[in-house]
Amino acid sequence: MKVRHRIQRWFLVCLAFASLASFASAQQMLPSPSGFNLFSQQQDIQLGEQNAAQVSKQMPVLPDSSPVTQYVRRLGQKLIAVMPQPTYPYNFHVVQEKDINAFALPGGPIYVNLGTITAADNEAGLAGVMAHEMSHVYMRHSTKMASRQMAAQLPLALLGGMLGNSGSLLARAAELGIAFGVNSYFLKYSRTDEAQADAVGAEIMYNAGYNPVAMADFFRKLEAEGGARGPQFLSDHPNPGNRVAAVSREIAAFPPRQFQQDSPQFQSARLDAGKIRAYTAQQIQSGAWRGQTPQAGSGGMMAGLAAPGAAPSGTFRQFDHQDYQISYPDNWQVRGDQTSAATIAPGAGVTRGAVAYGVIVSGYQPENSGSLDQGTHQLLTSLRASNPNLRQIGNDQDIRVNGIAGKSVDLIGVSPIQQGGRALPERDWLVTLQRGDGSLMYLVFLAPEGDFSRLRPTFEQMLKTLRLK
After folding, report:
1. Does residue 448 have a cis bond before it (omega within 30 degrees)?
2. Is the same domain home to 330 and 266?
3. Which one of 218, 232, 317, 468 is separated from 246 by 20 to 30 angstroms, measured CA to CA?
4. What is the structure's pLDDT at 76?
5. Domain presence at residue 109
């Protein structure tokens, strides 16, 4: 009898080891981050901590005690458990914003909008968004992009002198206008980054027991919603191609396993999220979420702009041009008429005879151009010829503005505004649209680099109102 019990116990032990071995064999090894990066992993964490403090001041973030936040953090811990250890100090937050979006700061802070939680059909879809953002952190996409920008702007000898000196590197990055706060260019990824985050996110999901296809399905759902630029998530995370097919190819060689699709905890958190007040990006920008009523010309929470009085109001009026209609903040002015190029800017946004804040709307006739892409690049060449300080950052992106195909290009220049005797860096956002006769209509939204992120919701709202005639 004792011998039989020993055999039974030994069989159970072997079965347990076999189950563990089977589970281990099912785990997929994440690729190691590689590529040029001036920043250390500890500097990534430092940047994340610094900018997380700013996010809490600029956006309505739910308290840690919120049941929705607690659920998101429990789901996050499930994903963290399958990351290569030791890993970044990931932490998860929920933003009271209606728009479908999520973003990650360097070093670990992850933010998910209420609109994303309510838009997800199941837990696997939400886990996919979170795994995707974790992949951007793990692969260090934002600081790699910032490193490429610094390398393009600084001499090699100067870069070499900053390596290993955390304070010097971070200070010089700030001087160049490189920031990682809300709506920062360095939190907006290329298609290559997106493809990599999809692939790594798929492995994280698989290892955590979720079908990776749920991530691609959720992104496909967002694309189907359309709109002026589609959901904000797709503005920051451009589609690298057929996500469903790409993710399916990625997991084709993975061993079969049972997946979790949903949970009662997710459905409960989703219902709770739907009961919490959520704000639009415009309301967040204006400070309405703090219980403040923005005054015309005051800009609510944007009193700290480099040019006092340049902040947009929360009320819009319409400009009717012979070629288009567009709405703009009612405390800004239109310079130009219904037949000419137009500049829409606040009075305080025009200095030294140049526009520092606002948007320039004009037309361009390409030479022998048969495509929007060729015409846009001809326009860029023309703009750089008239302004040698203008430089493109990143790749141009395909967008749609009220059903019309367009191009989106981010640029950095020099602002006419000076502080301490030095010109501030300027951020320009170029949007081009091709008209029926082959000519281009283009808009250049611009502001000093340090202020652009706070004005971006206003710029995007203006673009959403654009109607070509």
Report:
1. no
2. no
3. 232
4. 97
5. yes
Whole-angstrom distance, CA of residue 323 vs CA of residue 342: 11
pLDDT on residue 183: 64
**What residues make up the domain containing 329?**
299-468
Looking at 165-174, 241-250, 356-365, 435-444, which range is the least confident one? Answer: 165-174
Give yes or no: residues 195 and 344 share one domain: no
Q: Are 322 and 469 in contact (CB under 8 A)?
A: yes
| pLDDT of 12 over the 50 cut | no
- Average pLDDT of span 295-324: 74
Residue with tokens 């190029």: 341
DSSP structural state of residue 290:
G
pLDDT tens column, 114-148: 999 999 999 999 999 999 999 999 999 999 988 88
Q: Which two tokens stand for residue 296?
A: 């015309």
Q: Which one is predicted more confidently, 366 or 179?
A: 366
> Which run of H or of E encompasses 430?
strand 422-434
Q: Which helix (H) or strand (E) holds 15?
A: helix 2-26
Measured over all CA atoms, what is the biggest interatomic distance in the chain, rounded to whole angstroms?
Answer: 100
Q: Please list the helix, strand and coil fractions of the chain in percent, rounded to the nearest 5, in that order.
A: 45, 20, 35
Residue pointed to by tokens 């994440």:
30
Token pair listed for 420:
């301490």
Nearest to 79 by CA among 200, 182, 180: 200
Contact 73, 269 (CB under 8 A): no
Provide the residue type at 121 as one letter.
Answer: D
Alpha-carbon distance of 446 to 460, in angstroms, equals 12
Q: Given the structure tokens 């005054």, which residue do they identify? A: 295
How many domains, the chain? Answer: 2
Q: What's the first-to-final CA gap in the chain, in angstroms?
A: 91
